[in-house]
Amino acid sequence: MTIKDTLYRKPQSPPKAFTFDARVAKVFDDMAARSIPGYNEVQHLTTIMARHYTKSRTRIYDVGCSTGNTLILLLHAIRDKSIDFIGADPSPEMLAICSRKIGPFTGQNRTALLASPAEDLTFENASVIIFNYTLQFVEPRLRSAILKRAFTSLVKGGVLILSEKTNPLTKDRKTMQSFYRQFKLDNGYSNLEIDQKDSALTGILRPFSEEKNISLLTGAGFKNVMLMQKSLQFCSFAAIK
Predict the structure, then answer these.
(1) pLDDT tens, 112-137?
(2) What is the pTM of this model?
(3) What distance in Å separates the CA atoms of residue 217 and residue 225, rounded to the nearest whole number?
(4) I need a surface site. Which of 31, 44, 128, 169 has the fewest CB within 10 A?
């Protein structure tokens, strides 16, 4: 059962820095669905892309797998027993929930969960690598090297899926921020909750522009980068090797 996110409902002076601890892990599914425009659609599109580009006897990596929602969709969609699924996340609380959710599925014996941040992860023989809302929490100077390692590990014809909150161009920023606030208000968050979470995320979530993310992917070696989905300032890209 999904637990409602009420972490910032009461005044906090000041809100502590955001971290993916037990409190966040407990309500993460609700938080993500109510805070990220197009979140469920991105999971569906990720599954479609993965199913198309997966190759036998390779690996699928879900980097920043959180509570395992995408992994579960992939296990349903891809039944090839020669495929290994790797879920990685630096939060042990997230991985504990992920493990419990994956447990009932027959694909459990094909899934390895690694307690690792993206910057420490080693990729090998991959046909699909997923970074959904992950790199935005990684130190900016490290992101290029992570994507280059991922590119090197992908087999020819493999795909890297990258979803990020982006930083709009200056002329659009205030308008997009206004739309995004209304999105969260419509999903039941109060102005207090929105402001306090924004404060908690300051310096933790550091988004790049849409153009900068594309530049990182092409700089890593990808020649074919497609905009897979865009909702407000949230963008998803599919980069093909």
Answers:
(1) 999 999 999 999 999 999 999 999 99
(2) 0.95
(3) 7
(4) 169
